[in-house]
Amino acid sequence: MTEQFIVVWTIRGETIRVPHSTQNAALHQAKELLCEHGCDLEISLHLTPPPSIWFTNKRMRDWCLAGFPAVRI
Description:
Elements: E1 4-11, E2 14-20, H1 23-37, E3 42-48, E4 52-55, H2 57-65
Antiparallel strand pairs: 1-2, 1-3, 3-4
């Protein structure tokens, strides 16, 4: 099974999940959403399989406030 990076965010009570095949694509979408909606956007990044939260809401907020530095795994 291939890894998937899933960006999950909530706006006005609606939760949206979008899968990406690469880390860079997922982080790019997350950055665009954070730039558009602000660093307090409820957003996380999940990695499957196995299901796990890779970037929590807090980590996403900190990443945004730091100016989106390069992510190291």
